[in-house]
Design goal:
alpha+beta, about 35% strand
Length: about 200
């Protein structure tokens, strides 16, 4: 039964192939998540991609672009080689086969097992990334060791309402940091103290 429980796993993808791997895993019916920034296309690049999207080609996957009416956005990964997939442990061999020669599933520190990411960590990270809040900064998790730990808090108001993380001093400002431990962290811009409540559990 434990083998069939769904969990999140991180994939290291080579050669900027995250969108190709995303499409392959989507074809397998698996949920994926790539932390991205959306960049609006303009000028010649907009025209070129608009023509491309208007002439579908089954041999080409265009999941890197989002079209909203006349506006086209390019999805730009905040970490070029990182992709998350939600699957069961018994499906992992198929996932690993799918990404073979294009990447691998991260293992635990002892390299004996695949590293599962707790659902709550993933949910908090996705909440912040998809909030549309300005001033988000992303860090490799090992970069965070130089930032002093702070209080664990929950955001009570604003676009980040519900997010939980730690208050850290980063570049002389107190910011909310939400991490997927061992992989990536996102820091918000300054959040007024009155919007925060300390988490005691």
């Amino acid at each position: 039964m434990e083998e069939n429980r769904l969990g999140w796993y991180a994939l290291k993808v080579f050669f900027n192939k995250v969108f190709e791997i995303e499409a392959l895993l989507d074809d397998m019916g698996l949920e994926t998540y790539i932390p991205v920034r959306r960049v609006q296309l303009k000028g010649e690049e907009h025209m070129r991609i608009a023509r491309r999207l208007a002439t579908p080609d089954d041999r080409r996957r265009d999941n890197q672009f989002i079209q909203a009416g006349p506006v086209i956005y390019k999805r730009v990964p905040v970490v070029s080689s990182l992709l998350f997939v939600r699957t069961s442990r018994d499906m992992l061999p198929k996932v690993e086969s799918c990404v073979k020669e294009k990447g691998f599933v991260y293992k635990t520190a002892d390299r004996k097992d695949c590293a599962v990411i707790p659902d709550k960590q993933m949910a908090m990270f996705r909440l912040v990334c998809s909030s549309g809040a300005d001033g988000l900064d992303f860090f490799a998790d090992d970069d965070m060791t130089r930032y002093k730990s702070g209080d664990r808090v929950r955001v009570m108001e604003g676009p980040l309402k519900g997010a939980e993380g730690y208050i850290k001093r980063i570049r002389k400002d107190r910011r909310l940091l939400v991490a997927i431990e061992g992989f990536i962290a996102v820091a918000t811009s300054f959040i007024p103290p009155q919007f925060l409540a300390k988490v005691t559990d």
